[in-house]
Structures are given as structure tokens and as C-alpha cells.
Amino acid sequence: MVRPRLLVVSMSLPVTAKRTGEEAWSFTMSPGGLVSALLGLKEFETKWIGWPGVDVHDAVGKKALSIALAEKGCIPVFLEEVCDQYYNGYCNNILWPIFHYLGTPPEYRNDGTITYQSQYDAYKKANRIFFDVVNEHYQEGDVVWCHDYHVMLLPQYLKEYNSKMKVGWFLHTPFPSSEMYKTLPSRSELLRSVLTADLVGFHTYDFARHFVNACMCILGTEATSEGVVDQGKFTSVEVFPIGIEPERFINTSKLSEVTEYMKKFKSDFGGRKLILGVDRLDTIKGIPHKYQAFEKFLEENEDWRGKVLLLQIAVPTRNGIGEYQKIKDQCHGVVGRINGRFGSISSVPIIHLDCSIHFHQLCALYAITDVLLVTSLRDGMNLVSSEFVACQKGEKGVLVLSEFAGAGQSLGAGALLVNPWNIKEVSNAIGEALIMSPEEKEKKHQINFQYVKTHSTQQWADDFMNKLNEVTSKAELETGKAPHELPQHDVVQQYSKSKNRLLILGFYGTLTKPNKNQERKDEGMNLELHPQLKERLKGLCSDPKTTVVVLSRSEKSVLDQNFGEHDMWLAAENGMFLRHTAGEWVTKMPENMNLEWIDGVKQVFKYFTERTPGSYFQASETSVVWNYQYADAEFGRAQAKDMLQHLWAGPTSNASVDVVQGRYSVEVHSVGVTKGSAMERILGEIVLQNKSITTPIDYVLCIGNFLGKDEDVYTFFEPELTKKTMSSPYYGSGPLKKVSSTLVDVKGDNYFSVAIGNTHTKASYFLDSSDDVVQLIHKLCTHNNP
């Protein structure tokens, strides 16, 4: 059986290349679980596409390198002249600082050729080069997995070329809050590109939430519990916390060589408690903060002086860059001061190493560490924490972990979580960890050890690929369900044959006049029925075989004003209130629904209405809607984005509500208030008030211009779901009652779900505008009155 191919695309290849001759190359495999996991996905033949780490300008060298890399399952991307402004410029000078909350750096003042725009141009060109290489090697059926912020434009390039290509994108760094991300000048282009991927993955829920919020605030997209809807296209957004290869660390810790290192290190440290730090020498790792907290601990705990050692392994990165030399010099200065204050002739409290160490030595240090101290200021995950947990033997040590590391959401239950900016808090945590009882340490260790064992890097890769396969398979099925233009002849023909018909009609955009090129209305949401429909609807409602329900988010008075003279059912505020026009309104609102948030939302909507000419808002009993269709479109969208920030930070922050952004509106309503969720209540009330019903509903026509969250009404009546026996308890306005008749029995050719002006829909059919609804209802009325 031929395995499908996986094309992994990242900035760097998993090997380091070194030229040893005109046509000769040698390679060193990069260590780490990520490489092993991606190359070890059993169900795929994996090819890795990336920059080889060296510039190769001659054709002979490129050809020889490509042939040599092919034997290792790798494909080189030659970036050449764009590499510096792409990698050192846009990626590491602009994106990386913003993603780690360091802000947008100023443009270079001493070099007019290096600007923000020149770096972004290099970024776009580099992503195009990546695309060219992927396209050259892509075969039908391949899966493409893009990694990290270096290739944020690649998903769009791939999907524009081949919309059927399966594309995933995963970010290995934090994704910042929308307030930070929006400072990026190219913010919209990058988000739009990432959203063309089928699946977008992050390490933590915070990062995923920040991404979704940025899409809503900057692009005006709609968010769901599973992802983002942008211009009718759904992108799944999921959380996949990466792990390590636990068996590699566990097995290495058992080696005799490691055991010897453990004995040697214990002897060298002279019985002192060991606090260990293992970090890249980087501004985000909080190494100076760690030293300041340790200094505070020594100041306040004189008894521990000379009895505890902080060993910091600071692995050099990005040598030659000024900012990294500054952090290195800062660390050296702080270490010198602390050692000068608290050291002696025979020992110093801090050992700082500007180098990496052998893997066996690292495992030995993990095994004997009493406290692992992680003080990252921002970190995508921080796998050092997991490595420490995997290597622990005998009496266990304690993990003191920054709450700003992604690992805090995975290993926090078995760690002491700290705010690294609070020096006193970290100092106290050091003290707590050093005196923690063996029983408590063992308990915390077991919690984290079970997590590390079961959440390996391999599991992370498997989870992502399984989800990507699930998402793309579902998308392929839905592609085959694209709506067709409504066959009006069939609608009328089946209508004429049926014995008990149900018509579910929306109001706004369905039974009103089309709003194209419409002038602003001072009456705001006081909608009016299409003038050509008044008499025709009356004719339709007069047929005893036909039940008509107008289902709208409008309030009761609006429906009364427009439909009070018709023999029909009215469902206001998405079915929260219901009445037949011959009776009184009854409440279908759940008894425990909390509406305390409404006043706060009204204040926010009032604030933005006063500052957005042409906008208006309407508050009903269960929802508030702000509409800006008559305002300047661009300004209205900008105001809507700011409004969402105000809502999330204020009245909806802890409320059980849905915030829904429409094309020209923002609506806030209680969770679960959708048209689909209201249908069973509506059907139940119809049966209660028409006890003489003996014939099941055998024809349903559902037409609306609904928001995405309301389109569940279309699937409610799908034939495979609708042979409904109403035998479950139904809560009406009075005491508990039961309805025990078969209410709906619709065959496939007798159900028509119709969306107005929208082809990205759950409905099976579409019409262009409400003018088409007028024509259809006219044809149905003609049948009733031939």
C-alpha cells in the first residue's frame, strides 16, 4: 500500500549542512523530539522542505546539496539575496518581538536601504520561493504542514494555486493579544493568509484565543467554538500542546555513564541544594529576573547562604546581534555582583555557563536537581520543564514555573506557578520548594510525569495530522453540498401534492424590500413588509393546509405591526416569544436565563451609536443589536472592531452570551438563542394549540437571510432528522404537558431550505434577493387560488 506523502515546510531543515568539497557535503542531524516526530509519522512518507542553513550560489553546489539532502528526505530552499532581510529582518526583527510582547522595533536609522517595507518585501519574496519549491515537489494527495511565523503567507499562495490542497499551519511561539498584534503594519494580510489553511494550531488555549480575537477585531470575522469564519470560509483553530520524547530522557537517565555524572556532580557541589536553570540566552527567558529573585532569596534567608547553588546553563543564540550581547553582559554583571556579595573563597552561589553541555551531562543534572527554575517572560511552550520531569529519580525535585510559559497550562498542576516579574514572589517560591516535604514533591512529580509520558511529541504530531484529516474530509463532503438555485417549479409542484405544509420565513432580508442602494432610515429597526407581499401572504395563510411561521430576531412590536392582520404564527427574538395572531404572546425563555448583562451592553452600544453617524441600535428583552448598514462602511467596520474590544473587556467578559458580528451589525444575546434551538419549542406550541392535528407535516419550506449561527434551523428539518415524535416533555407557558403525536414526516423531495443572497450556507438552495421570494409566494398563492 502506497503511503500518502507529508510535506513539512519550515524555515530550517532538520540537518546542518557543511561543504567539504566542490560537490561534497557533510551533515549533522539536529537533535530534538520535533524532528523525530515529524519524520516518524508512520502513516506518511515525510519530506522536509526548508533552508539548509548555508548560502549556495553556484549551480554545481546546489545540485550536489539537493542530491545529498534527498537521501535524508529533505528538500533545500535557496534564499540567497533575500535571506538577511527576510530572516534577520522581518522574521526576527519584526514578527518575533511582536509575538513575544516586545513591541514593533523602530526602523533602521543608519541604513536607508533597510526599511520596514523592504523587510516585508523580502518576506513576501521568500514565501514565494518556499511556494515554488513546494509546488515543484507537490503530488496530488500530498498534505502540506507549514510551521511557524516564517511562512505565514505560504498557506494563501498554496491555496490560490490549488484550492483542494490540504494545508495545516502551526505556530511554535506565543500569539500575542490583539492589542499587541494590531501594531503590526501587515497584520491583515498575514491573518487572511493563515485563515486560508484548513487547520491552524497553537500550543495553548490563550494563544488560540488571542488569534481568534485578532481575526474578529482586525478582519471582522465571525468566531465559533471550533474556529473562524472569514468570507464564508471556515478555518478550524485548535490547541495541540507539544511534548518531548519521554523515553529518550528516561532511558538515558538509566545509563551507567549518566549515573557516574550524577555522583561526580553531587561531589562537586559539596552537598549544596541545586537550583538549575537551562535556557537559551535570550531576552524572553528572564535570566536576569531569575538572578534578582535568587539574590532576594539570599538577602532574606541568611541560613541558606552557602547551602544552595544556582547553576545556569545559558545556551548562546544569534551571536553577533547587539541585543543578545547586551543581555549576555547584563547577566554577567548581575552574577558578578551576587557572587561578590554572597560568595566566599571556597564557593560562589551562582555558576553561569555560556555554553551548551553534553546530553548525558544534562540528564544527570536534571536527575539530581532540587529546584528547576523557569522564569520565562514569554515562551511558546518551554520543553525544559518536561525534560526535567522525565529525568527525575529518587527523591524528586520541584518545578518552579513561569505562568507566562506555555508549559504553565500543561504542567501547572504539578508545579509552583510564579509571575517572573514579581521578584518577591519568585524568591518565596524558591524557599517553598527547598523545604517542601518528600511526600508533596512526589505527589506533584507524579501528576506531571503522567502528563509528560502521555503527551509526547509523537502524540502531538499524530493529533495534529488526525485533526487535519478530519477537517479536510469534512470540508470535501460539504463542498459537494454547495447550494443550488432554488427550483421554483419543484417547490410549487410538491407544495400542491402535500396535505400539511409548514412554511418557516425569516423577516429581515426575506420579507422586506432588498436594501441595495437604500437610503438611511430614521426609523432604524422598524422594518416594513415588502409592499407586494401583504395581500399574497394573506392568501397563503388562508389555506387550511398551510401553517406559516415568521421567525425573526425582531422584537414583538415589530412583528405585530407588520403581521398582526395575517393568520400566522409569530416568533419574536429568535423564538423567545411566540404567539398565533389570534392569541396572546407566550414566553419561551428558559427560566434560569441570566439577563443582567443587557444594561452594560446597552451603554457600550449607545456610546458607539453616538460616535458613528448613520448607526443605530435596538434592545429587546433577550438581545441587543447595533446596526451600521447606513453608516460609512469602512468607518463602521472600524468602529465594530473597537466595539468588540469594549464588550469583551467589559459587560460580556464573564457573561453567558454569544457576540455575533454580521455583515453590518454586532449582536449580543444569551448563549444558545438561535433559530434552530427555537424550532422544537415552536412546533410544540403549534401542536398544543391545534390538538385536532391528525396529519403529520409532510412539506417544509424554510427561507431566510440568517446569520451563520442561526443556520441550524436549516439542518433541523433535514429529512433524516425530521421523523420526529414529540413524546418528550414540553414546557409550555402552563404546567408540564406532553405531546405524543408524530408531528413531522418529511421526505427528501418535500423539504426546501433556502438562503437569501448567500451561497456559503447550510441551506440546500439559494435565491438572490427578497424580490425572488415575492415571485415564489405569488406562485404558491396562485396554486391556492387558481
UniProtKB/TrEMBL annotation:
Q: Which Gene3D superfamilies match?
A: Glycogen Phosphorylase B, HAD superfamily/HAD-like, Trehalose-6-phosphate phosphatase related protein, domain 2
GO terms for biological process, alphabetical: trehalose biosynthetic process
Q: What class of enzyme is it?
A: transferase
**Highest taxon of the lineage:** Eukaryota
KW Transferase (keyword) present = yes
* Keyword entries, A-Z: Glycosyltransferase, Transferase
The molecular function terms in GO held by this entry are:
alpha,alpha-trehalose-phosphate synthase (UDP-forming) activity
Mark the transmembrane ranges.
none
- What EC number(s) has UniProt assigned to this enzyme? 2.4.1.15
Q: Does the keyword ATP-binding apply?
A: no
Task: Name the protein family.
Answer: In the N-terminal section; belongs to the glycosyltransferase 20 family.
- NCBIfam families on file: PRK14501.1 (NF011071), T6PP (TIGR00685)
The name on file for this protein is alpha,alpha-trehalose-phosphate synthase (UDP-forming)
The scientific name of the source species is Brassica napus (Rape)
Designated gene of the protein: BnaA03g48650D
